[in-house]
């Protein structure tokens, strides 16, 4: 990978990233595509990404030091994707096809609090509705940021949310999820949940702690573990995933599901990301 600095952007080359697949695979909710470029709010500021070709992209509002310190990790560039994708391809024919089609997809490493609240909001919602609710939430309690004529809001910090009532959250359209968000904020503020401590625990131990928050079940807990706490051995499963596994792999019960997930070892999260982005787009 090479980083070349220009007046107001960096050109990153020698790394393959499929930004459509990466940003719109259901692992994050605050990136938008406008006229071939991607606009996101990451690390508390607006960032613009302009793909040049399959192995080159320009990133605006980011210094070389910030890219090396934050975005290198955010885009999972410290991993050997050639090795990861080789192992996934050898698992079965469906995954082989998924890897071939979305080879440039990356698993994003996100900020834990934003990830937690976003996936609480995601429950029983479609992508457009999730994005709308998160945007309202940010506009109400985040800080306004601007860059090159674009403006948005940062994801709110816990300190700014502690005194917000459940009723105020419900007025944003969050419904029953408002109570879950309020409980998550309280447990984080009281130290009952500490993200740094969760990183040191096994996935099973960390999942149990996350599930002490009202409304967080296995699926949401696993999304938090995978997309913000680097627990790559987890495999988020919901009703749609179970239905797809039954149709494509003949998995009918919990024992078969557990065996299937365990067959991926530490790559279970990557398998889930590639497999279900492929299946979802193949069946639409």
Protein described:
With 284 residues, the protein is of the alpha+beta class. The protein folds into 3 domains: 2-77, 2-Layer Sandwich (TATA-Binding Protein), CATH 3.30.310.260; 79-103 and 233-284; 112-228, Orthogonal Bundle (Endonuclease III, domain 1), CATH 1.10.340.30. The chain has 14 helices and 8 strands. It has a 6-stranded antiparallel beta sheet. The protein has a two-stranded antiparallel sheet with strand order 7-8. Strand 7 and strand 8 (150-153) form a beta hairpin. Helix 4 crosses helix 14 (268-282) and helix 10 crosses helix 11. The longest helix is centred in the middle third of the chain and has 15 residues, at 127-141. The chain is globular, with a radius of gyration of 19 Å. The mean pLDDT is 95.
Spatial order of strands in the largest sheet = 1-2-6-5-4-3
Q: Roughly how many Å is the radius of gyration?
A: 19 Å
* CATH arch. level architecture of the largest domain: Orthogonal Bundle
Biggest sheet statistics: 6 strands, antiparallel
Sheet-strand content, in percent, reads: 5-15%
Helix tally equals: 14
CATH class of the largest domain: Mainly Alpha
Q: Quick one: how many beta strands?
A: 8
CATH superfamily of the largest domain: Hypothetical protein, domain 2
Residue-averaged pLDDT: 95
Pick out the low-confidence regions: none
From the spread of the alpha carbons, the general shape counts as: globular
**CATH fold name of the largest domain, please?**
Endonuclease III, domain 1
How far the N terminus sits from the C terminus, by CA atoms, comes to 35 Å
Q: What structural category characterises the helix and strand content?
A: alpha+beta
* Total number of distinct structural domains: 3
Series of secondary-structure elements, N-terminal to C-terminal: EEHEEEEHHHHHEEHHHHHHHH
EC number: 4.2.99.18
Keywords: DNA damage, DNA repair, Glycosidase, Hydrolase, Lyase, Multifunctional enzyme
Catalytic activity: 2'-deoxyribonucleotide-(2'-deoxyribose 5'-phosphate)-2'-deoxyribonucleotide-DNA = a 3'-end 2'-deoxyribonucleotide-(2,3-dehydro-2,3-deoxyribose 5'-phosphate)-DNA + a 5'-end 5'-phospho-2'-deoxyribonucleoside-DNA + H(+)
GO molecular function, one term: class I DNA-(apurinic or apyrimidinic site) endonuclease activity
């Amino acid at each position: 990978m090479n980083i070349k600095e220009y007046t107001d952007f960096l050109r990153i080359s020698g790394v393959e990233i499929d930004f459509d697949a990466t940003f719109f695979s259901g692992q994050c909710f605050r990136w938008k595509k406008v006229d071939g470029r991607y606009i996101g709010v990451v690390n508390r500021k607006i960032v613009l990404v302009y793909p040049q070709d399959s192995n080159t992209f320009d990133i605006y509002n980011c210094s070389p030091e910030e890219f090396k310190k934050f975005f290198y990790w955010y885009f999972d560039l410290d991993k050997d994707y050639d090795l990861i994708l080789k192992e996934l391809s050898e698992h079965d024919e469906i995954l082989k096809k998924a890897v071939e089609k979305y080879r440039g997809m990356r698993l994003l490493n996100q900020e834990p609090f934003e990830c937690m609240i976003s996936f609480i909001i995601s429950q029983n919602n479609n992508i457009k509705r999730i994005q709308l609710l998160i945007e309202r939430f940010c506009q109400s309690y985040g800080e306004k940021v601007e860059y090159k004529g674009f403006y948005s809001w940062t994801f709110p910090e816990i300190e700014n949310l502690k005194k917000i009532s459940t009723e105020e959250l419900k007025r944003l359209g969050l419904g029953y999820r408002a109570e879950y968000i309020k409980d998550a904020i309280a447990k984080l503020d009281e130290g009952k949940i500490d993200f740094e401590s969760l990183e040191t625990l096994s996935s099973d131990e960390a999942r149990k702690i996350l599930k002490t928050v009202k409304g967080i079940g296995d699926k949401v807990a696993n999304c938090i573990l995978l997309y913000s706490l680097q627990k790559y051995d987890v495999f988020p499963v919901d009703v749609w995933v179970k239905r797809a596994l039954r149709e494509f792999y003949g998995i009918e019960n919990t024992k078969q599901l557990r065996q299937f997930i365990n067959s991926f070892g530490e790559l279970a999260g990557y398998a889930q990301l590639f497999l279900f982005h492929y299946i979802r787009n193949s069946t639409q």
